[in-house]
Specification:
By secondary structure, this protein is of the alpha/beta class. It has 13 helices and 9 strands. Bound molecules: phosphoric acid mono(formamide)ester.
Length: 309
Amino acid sequence: MRHFLRDDDLTPDEQRSVLELAVRLKENRFGVHPFAGPRSVAVVFDKPTLRTQLSFTLGVVELGGYPMVVDGNLAQIGVRESIADTARVLGRQAAAIVWRTFDQRRIDEMAAYAGVPVVNALTDQFHPCQVLADLLTVAERHGGVDALPGLTLGYLGDGANNMAASYLLGGATAGMHVRIGTPAARPPDPVVVATAQRIAARTGGSVVVTDDPAAAVAGADVVATDTWVSMGDERSAAEAEAMFGPYRLDADRLAGAAEHAIVLHCLPAYRGKEITDEVIEGPQSVVFDEAENRLHAQKAVLTWLMEQR
Ligand code: CP
């Protein structure tokens, strides 16, 4: 039984296979039906969402299944009922479970008891489905899946958030050079950095954490950013501006990247905060390709997980 709980749950070869499958599923959108029956997939949200609910709901339908969307506010997993009991109830009726929740330990416990594949649709610590979609987007713009190794991704913003962690692990798995530009007060989890460094040593990638935003994006093939205030953060707008203002992705900052650089943002975006209107609407921005690619990447990972059973 395999799960996709964090980016490094896929080996480099497995990640390449999933991305290649995503490319094929994008070309032939309705040709693969691992959930034919229809079998149900439980899609559970403890936090707000637009893209993730849309893409998993449509994705499961396109894979021949029935998406059983569960409102976490009603289910109150871990409050009304233990995670272990909930996992066994869901696992008796669903072929797979997709969960957006809080601490990573919650989804680890779900996976331990479910008896079916579990997919992380965002936790406080990781957002691996987003980074899989981001890698698919990079591959489309920079020469294909085989061309990912050796590319440089510069991330600007909160180094302690889930996107930074997933870029570190997912990017290193792809053999990319990942640079995290973040204030010294907001470093990524050192355990995640060490894990990414170990992966990068095998894949030919590398990992840099710097408080110099110009160094993070210098010559980069891909420039990424994310909200300064993640779901659940209590930082005020003024505090966020004071801390992350120098890391804003504006036209001057982007000019330091490679001329062919593409711009990623997982959305929702706060224009004028982490990214300017000019950049997100500019010719280098691929944020809506990235949003669409959630669908194709997640269909690929669900299909791949069902093949591993
Ligand atoms: N990027 C992303 O996960 O979007 P939602 O929060 O809208 O699902």
